[in-house]
Amino acid sequence: MSQAGRALAYAFESGALAHRQAFFLRAEELPLRELEAEQSFRPDYLRLKQRGWSVVPRLQGGSYEQGLVLLTKHKEESFANIARGWALLAPGGRLVCAGANDDGAASLEKHIGKAFGLTDKISKYHCRVFWFDKGEGTPPDYWRGLAKLQPVGAGPWLSQPGIFSWDHVDEGSALLARYLPKDIAGTVADFGCGWGYLSRHLLDHCPGIARLDMIDAEHRATEAAHANVPDPRATAHWLDLIAEAAPTTYDAIICNPPFHAGRAAEPALGQGFIAAAARALKPGGHFYMVANRGLPYEPQLAEHFASFETLADNNKFRVSRAVR
Fold first, then answer.
1. Would you call 97 helix, strand, or coil by DSSP?
2. 217 touches 47 (CB < 8 A)
3. For 149-323, CATH number?
4. Percent of the chain with pLDDT over 70
5. pTM (global) more than 0.90
6. What CA–CA distance (Å, rounded) separates 166 from 239?
7. Tens digits of per-residue pLDDT, 88-122?
8. CATH number, span 3-145
9. What are the DSSP calls for 116-175, one per residue?
10. In whole angstroms, what is the distance from residue 158 CA to residue 9 CA?
């Protein structure tokens, strides 16, 4: 349980908040009852399912007496979840927000208090828990817009907060795109597809592709990828590739793997993607990966592939090609 989750549980245990039938956005396991959970990150979703929770990747509607929102370190994502939470409440319903001080909860508390007025708040475990009742105040239009797919950047792209690099093409993906050959063909996958930039690049430049699987552990990313890549050869899949098998085996896989857990670099995430790619590739298949050059992935590439080489290194990112 996160520190913010502990603070939220304490608010109920102490009697500051009363148990009601409620929804829970960005849910994690808490000792609370009568919660309908939303969790769009596949590993956390599966963990809640295994514990017997009622959980979905996205709540579609409702009229709840109470809602709980775990704030994240991404301000725009929290704004979007507050706007969605407000819409899910019945008139007079209560929305309870919890976040870590280190993730900017104090600033969010000020924004939310200005928009709605706060009913009460507590501080515990270096976190803040604060709440308001649904009355005449409404979310700012900007927050409402963040709660759905919207145009980003200068290109024809749709995205939303909660996705890696949600509002721009990240440098690593742009570098990888420059080094992907045009003869990639057959059955192909984009592991950790995000909002679909690399998948669309592949289909625009590689006419030999017969099938493209866009795979991500974040449900919001698969929603955006589906919208951004309307090509009939492409299908979006919501999977945790570390724990779940890919839909099929592939002639080629491209990947810009996640490498952060919380605030710390976590090489094991990228290592897990390398192992997953090796399992999913056909013999002789090619794996194209971009990664932060400071992360030690060469031993895993050597362990899982017959050969590998560096295609590009700009002192920030490294593009590698490996052969199964």
1. strand
2. no
3. 3.40.50.150
4. 97
5. yes
6. 19
7. 999 999 999 999 999 999 999 999 999 999 999 99
8. 3.40.50.150
9. H--SEEEEETTEEEEEEE-SS----HHHHHHTS-EEETTTTEEE-TTSTTTTS--HHHHH
10. 36
